[in-house]
Write the C-alpha cells for this entry.
Amino acid sequence: MKQSDRISTLLGDGDDGWGIFLKAREMIAAGSDVVELTIGEHDIRTHPDILDAMNKAAIAGHTGYAEVPGIMTLRQAVAARVQARTGVPTTADNVMITPGGQSALFSAHHAVCDDGDTALYIDPYYATYPATLRAVGAIPQTIPAHAHDNFQPRASEIAKHAKGAKSLLINSPNNPTGVLYSRATLAGIADVCRTHDLWLISDEVYDTQIWQGEHISPRALPDMADRTLVVGSMSKSYAMTGSRIGWIVAPEAVIANLINLATHTTYGVPGFIQDAALFALEQGAPLEAEIAAPFARRREIAMDVLAGQNVVKHVPCMGAMYLMLDIRATGLSGEGFADALLDVEHIATMPGESFGQSAAGHLRVAMTVEDEAFREALERLVEFAKGLVG
Ligand code: PMP
C-alpha cells in the first residue's frame, strides 16, 4: 500500500545529521567509555519537589481527561509569566498548553501555513525544523545566518525570500549556536514581517538560560503581538524533558483554532503533569536559576579552557546549553572533525553541518556533563585540534 507523500517525504532527501550521535550510542552499547556531548538533555533529573507535586496530583485523581487547552490555572500562570517578562498584556485566552515545544512548533505552523505555503527558517537550525514544516504541508526555505555575523540573521537576507512566504521561524537563545538575537536583529526581523505580512513563530524554549545580554521576545516589539506565535516549554527551563509539556502564546483567534486542532490530535496534556508544571512555575525565578546554573558554570569553564589559543574559536555563547566551536583552522569539516574526535578521543559532539550548511566547519558541544568531566573533555578536544594543525 502506498503511504502518503507527506509522510514518505517528511525527512527530505538530505542526511538527517544524526550519524555521529548514532555511532556514539553504538560505541556506548558496545562498552566504550564515550563522553556524550551531543544532545540537549540535562545531566540532572526533574526536581524531586516537582515530582512530588506530580505524584500528589495523580494520587488525588487528576488522571482523567484534562481540559484540552490546558487547565485554567496553568494557562493563567503561563500568561502571567509571559506578561511579567515581556510587558505585553496576556491572558489565559492567549495560551494553549501543548505536549512539549515540539508539538507547539508543529501546531503553530499548522495554524498559519496552508499546503504549499513557503515557511522560512534560519540556518543554522534546530534539527527537527525542516521536517516539522513539511509535516504541515509547508515548503521549508532556509535563510542563512553567517559565522562572520556571529550567526545573527540579517533582515536583508530574510527580505530576499520573504515575498510570497507565509511565516518565519526564529529561535533565540539559539540551538545550535548559543547566540542571543540582539535588539537590532529582532527589530530588523519585525520590520520584514510587517512589510511582507509574515507570521512570526518565535521559539523561546531556552528563555531561562541567558548568560550574556537580554532576552527579548519579538512579541513585545511594536505591532508584533497580532502576528507572533511564541513557543515555550518546561523541558529546558525545569528539566522536565520527559514530561512533554510546553505552550503556545498567540492571538486569541489563533488559540481558538489551535484548541480545535488539539481536540482532534493530542486531546491535551495529562492533568497531573500540568499540576506539576503549575507547581514548578509557582517556584519561579529561583528554581529556574538553580536549573540553569550548571550550564552557566560550564560556560565559564569553556571560556577558561579556550582562552590563550587560536585553533578552536568559539561563537559568543550568550544563552542555551550549547557551545558552538569554530574548528575551521584544522582544515577539517565539522563532520570530519567530530568523526575523528569520536574515534580517537571517544568524545561525541554534533557536527555543525547537522544543523545546516551555515554551520559548516563548526561543532556543537552540549554542556551536559558534570563540570570536571566537561573541562577535561574540552581540554582534550583543544589538544586534538592543535595536533591536527601540527
Ligand atoms: N526548540 C528547540 C530549539 C529545541 O532545542 C527543542 C528541544 N531540543 C525544542 C524546541 C523542543 O523541546 P520540547 O519538545 O522538549 O519542549
Remarks:
- The domain at 62-283 is CATH 3.40.640.10 (Aspartate Aminotransferase; domain 2).
- The pocket of 4'-deoxy-4'-aminopyridoxal-5'-phosphate is lined by residues 40, 100-102, 126, 171, 175, 203, 205, 233, 235, 241, 246 (CB under 6 Å).
- The chain has a mean pLDDT of 96.
